[in-house]
DNA sequence: ACTAATTTGTCAATCGCCATGACGAAATAG
DNA sequence: CTATTTCGTCATGGCGATTGACAAATTAGT
């Protein structure tokens, strides 16, 4: 995939580099006070605005872009020229004249330019996909593997072969991989490629970046985070402030505030699974008692339902519940109630505009929602908070990862001219 | 005819008006996709950077400012000239030469320029103060009044007389009030001056702005929010990510993320007092059961301690506990444990770098902390989270309000002509 | 004491980027 | 066929930061 790899190798893109200035108490420590504002920065931001406008609002003429982002037509012309020369935007030809006046020439983000590669390490599958700048999935591959307790090396090797497969297919279509984002079911240290712990994989302090060939800019993050970003970018009517709850084996949450992900000081935010629900409840491996996972975690629900852990546990639960199994329905009802109690705390604390259930929860939503909404509605004063179910379901994290790369290109189109 | 109307009617684009219409920014300028990036904006941001650098890091020479913010000395020179002409920065004279080379001339933010007025409506007091650009409190006035159940009109009238008193004093010293910020013990709707509800004052949907002469730019916000900002700006070794917990009558929290306050979609974030601790506990006026306030709220603690509500309840608790009253100590121990459980959820969810106890909690911290830390430490896996006590104590909200005005001047120095 | 070295603040010249206003081009309306 | 409207581009200008040079003020070295 290294056709133009050198071109992008130099610059660090994708926002991870920013911020985080150590606010050490010492006066001499904080050297830089934010980055200086120079004309190049202005240019970059305006290029980004053009990209976002064109990417988000279909084909657009230069004049329409200018009106939308508040610059003059002349300025937009030069910006668009630069983007076309960089292969990020292409001219589709004259617009259909529907109003009086000369028709503009339609612009769209390139379908041949850079593309984002998303990958996912699940507990029992691996997946990879390629998404182009327009947001279309151009290639995709999945493989069922039980990764429980498997060493990181072989897992990443397998994943890499999937990645090579999809990116080879994409390159044949003229796409150029611009970055790789990997979703993992575990905690990832902030601004790093290190999986601090992934209980279901039994990984600890694993530097995923060190296991991969350093061909592309890499991002590694929690699957719940990528799932939330997918909901933000691809969801039906996305509010910019919501709490995304997902469950694979553990229960994770991701909070989106003003269109940005809240990661926490160390990157560990979103551990909804270990919020205390019944403080004197059963012991939890985390050290606490009565954590949400003891009531709504996969294992707890299976046990309460009287089912043995099988191959596809979530599907098993769903089919049993759909068939009317009262044990299963009761277990899901209880899980929903526990979720509702934990979410009450979260909603009181964060005032999101909505709570979105993703991942396995979206599959089980029909049986979780009544008791969840009941607890939430009873306990929360005031206007309350909408509870919605994600359309994306289990695809969220993978799509979110690929789109994260695409967004990083939109955010800074001119990595290197 | 319709220059805008035709544009809208003709096209068939699926009007995806982005949700973020109500961006909190001061100037209207709500263009379609964020505001355009023009040279004036660059100038404004760089003026702001100079102001922040000079304000934060003591007297500084132009060269030092340039090195710190990454601009050239020449550019900083013109920026500083403009700030001096505007009366926001003043030249203190030649620096003491400690290194080789020509000594610079020290710059500091003006002590005679604009100043921020902070005011506070407490349940049993009113206060106002004036803070200059250097952060010094230049005037201050407090008055003990029992505001419980008093109508907003008279309360605001009394507060206004305090405000006039301090601002008259400040004007005699050459200060010019640049804005007014009022801290109230209740929920304030986002980007408004309306107190949606303040249970202890018995205010509902009260537009404080309408009760005040519109002399100055006004900000109204929750006292917990201002307290957290005070901690951020004035605290000992302030991390940029922390959870500030304060209690006056209710229990409020404010979350600071990357140096910014998280307000929530409606501005109601931080309702820690109504996080469920024991889901089947006693009923709470909010509608829930077993909310934190039922265990750690002022009333609950007084009841558990066997004390009658008196004049200064917090002080009463503190003196009894200090005297060794076992009933009081036990009540505070229980309250601390409940706080610890609620904070476990919050910390798991948000991963702050620290939890800071402010307001009345800082006074009672010696008796709350042991059980609080115990619960938190037992339940939270991983690196845990520091628990600190605010130095500011009850002064936090008032100082935070005044400083909020000062910060707004630093953030946009030329806006205040 | 005198010179060399270093740092500061400022000035003139230049470059980058966007705004302005005018123009030809391409469509519709009458 | 002409008037009107809108689009894209060009030349010009303004604004803001950079570059490079210089005088001023201080320390270091002999």
What does this entry show, briefly?
2 copies of one chain form a homodimer. Chain A is an alpha/beta fold and 417 residues long.
Question: Could you characterize what this model shows?
Answer:
The structure is a homodimer of 417-residue chains. The first copy, chain A, folds into three domains: 35-110, Winged helix-like DNA-binding domain superfamily/Winged helix DNA-binding domain (Arc Repressor Mutant, subunit A, Orthogonal Bundle), CATH 1.10.10.10; 114-228 and 397-408, 2-Layer Sandwich (Nucleotidyltransferase, domain 5), CATH 3.30.420; 236-391, 2-Layer Sandwich (Nucleotidyltransferase, domain 5). In chain A, the strands form four sheets. Chain A has a five-stranded mixed β-sheet, with helices on both faces. The longest helix of chain A is centred in the last third of the chain and has 25 residues, at 326-350. With 417 residues, chain A is an alpha/beta fold. The relative contact order of chain A is 0.13. Helix content of chain A is 40%, strand content 20%. Chains A and B meet through helix 2, helix 3, strand 12 and helix 11 of A and helix 1, helix 2, strand 12 and helix 10 of B. The first copy, chain A, binds a DNA duplex (30 and 30 nucleotides) through helix 2 and helix 4.
């Amino acid at each position: 995939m290294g056709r133009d790899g050198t071109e992008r190798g130099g610059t660090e893109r994708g926002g991870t580099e920013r911020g985080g200035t150590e606010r050490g108490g010492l006066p001499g420590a904080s050297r830089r006070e934010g980055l200086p504002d120079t004309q190049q920065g202005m240019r970059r931001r305006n290029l980004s605005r053009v990209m976002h406008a064109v990417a988000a609002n279909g084909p657009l003429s230069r004049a329409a872009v200018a009106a939308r982002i508040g610059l003059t037509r002349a300025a937009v012309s030069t910006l668009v020229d630069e983007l076309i020369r960089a292969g990020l935007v292409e001219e589709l030809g004259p617009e259909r004249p529907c109003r009086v006046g000369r028709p503009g020439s339609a612009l769209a983000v390139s379908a041949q330019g850079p593309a984002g590669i998303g990958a996912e390490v699940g507990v029992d599958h691996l997946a990879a996909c390629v998404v182009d700048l327009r947001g279309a999935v151009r290639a995709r591959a999945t493989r069922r593997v039980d990764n429980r307790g498997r060493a990181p090396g072989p897992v990443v090797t397998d994943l890499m072969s999937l990645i090579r497969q999809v990116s080879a297919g994409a390159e044949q279509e003229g796409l150029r991989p611009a970055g790789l984002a990997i979703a993992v079911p575990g905690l990832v240290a902030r601004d790093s490629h290190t999986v601090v712990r992934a209980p279901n994989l039994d990984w600890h302090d694993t530097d995923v970046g060190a296991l991969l060939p350093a061909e592309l800019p890499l991002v590694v993050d929690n699957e719940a985070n990528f799932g939330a970003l997918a909901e933000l970018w691809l969801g039906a009517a996305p509010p910019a402030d919501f709490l995304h709850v997902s469950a694979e084996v553990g229960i994770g949450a991701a909070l989106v505030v003003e269109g940005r992900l809240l990661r926490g000081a160390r990157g560990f935010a979103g551990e909804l699974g270990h919020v205390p629900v019944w403080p004197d409840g059963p012991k939890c491996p985390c050290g606490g008692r009565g954590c949400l996972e003891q009531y709504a975690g996969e294992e707890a629900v299976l046990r309460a339902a009287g089912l043995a852990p099988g191959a596809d546990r979530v599907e098993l639960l769903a089919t049993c519940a759909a068939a009317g199994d009262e044990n299963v329905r009761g277990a899901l009802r209880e899980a929903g109630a526990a979720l509702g109690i934990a979410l009450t705390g979260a909603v009181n604390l964060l005032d999101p505009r909505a709570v979105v259930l993703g991942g396995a929860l979206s599959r089980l939503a029909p049986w979780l929602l009544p008791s969840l909404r009941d607890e939430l509605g009873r306990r929360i004063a005031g206007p309350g908070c909408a509870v919605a179910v994600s359309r994306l379901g289990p695809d969220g994290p993978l799509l979110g990862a690929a789109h994260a790369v695409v967004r990083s290109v939109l955010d800074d189109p001119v990595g290197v001219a």
